[in-house]
Specification:
The complex is a heterodimer of chains A (about 110) and B (about 120).
Chain A lengths: L3 E2 L5 E4 L4 E7 L7 E6 L6 E6 L3 E5 L2 E6 L4 E6 L8 E9 L5 E4 L3 E6 L1
Parallel strand pairs in A: 2-11
Antiparallel strand pairs in A: 1-3, 3-8, 4-5, 4-9, 6-7, 7-8, 9-10, 9-11
Chain B lengths: L3 E4 L2 E4 L5 E7 L6 E7 L6 E7 L5 E2 L8 E7 L2 E6 L8 E7 L8 E2 L3 E5 L1
Parallel strand pairs in B: 2-11
Antiparallel strand pairs in B: 1-3, 3-8, 4-5, 4-9, 5-6, 7-8, 9-10, 9-11
């Protein structure tokens, strides 16, 4: 079982729709969870992070965390073609925030 | 926000030569930096943790003698790929945090091609 699992996609949504990206993790001791966006050929850029169960909203983005189910998701409202990228879920490994373990990413395609 | 600068962005070298990649934290001090590698269509894999003033910590399966890491100051870490081979061709990315409870910020990455 992979430590962090994501559906590789592509996930295709029309412009203006809500995109829902999902991630599961295997280590119940994980404490912090991150979503990064990576455009082709570029390095990842941080979208959001979440530490506590529940929802966290930032603009068009909402991160949802359910530690009991070991599940974290990212919702993108009013999706734009510029949101088309690969979204990486990352989970801290060990105590503190020393290391991140990344999923393989979900490719999102937003069509005009 | 925290800015991490990486240089060069792209390098092509011949098999058997060594390549040095620099990672700088521009507006903060980083006692710890992390080096990742990403092969095409794969996820980022942590290679090593660079510690200022001490030896780097390598992940299992990463050859410390091949991937030399030096973290000589609070704003600079270098990764040297020694005796590079075509299978070392990859996207190398460094990252750092600007505080204990802060998330990682990534440099722009270095695309290494070994011919």
């Amino acid at each position: 079982q992979k430590e962090v699992e994501q559906n590789s996609g592509p996930l295709s949504v029309p412009e203006g729709a809500i995109a829902s990206l999902n991630c599961t993790y295997s280590d119940r001791g994980s404490q912090s969870f991150f979503w990064y966006r990576q455009y082709s050929g570029k390095s990842p850029e941080l979208i959001m992070f979440i530490y506590s169960n529940g929802d966290k909203e930032d603009g068009r983005f909402t991160a949802q965390l359910n530690k009991a189910s070991q599940y974290v998701s990212l919702l993108i409202r009013d999706s734009q073609p510029s949101d088309s990228a690969t979204y990486l879920c990352a989970v801290n490994k060990g105590t503190g925030f020393q290391k991140l373990v990344f999923g393989t990413g979900t490719r999102l395609l937003v069509s005009p | 926000g925290a800015v991490v600068s990486q240089h060069p962005s792209r390098v092509i070298c011949k098999s058997g030569t060594s390549v040095k990649i620099e990672c700088r934290s521009l507006d903060f001090q980083a006692t710890t930096m992390f080096w990742y590698r990403q092969f095409p269509k794969q996820s980022l894999m942590l290679m090593a943790t660079s510690n200022e003033g001490s030896k780097a910590t390598y992940e299992q399966g990463v050859e410390k003698d091949k991937f030399l890491i030096n973290h000589a100051s609070l704003t600079l870490s270098t990764l040297t790929v020694t005796s590079a081979h075509p299978e070392d061709s990859s996207f190398y990315i460094c990252s750092a945090r600007d505080g204990e409870d802060s998330p990682l910020h990534f440099g722009n990455g270095t695309r290494l091609t070994v011919t």
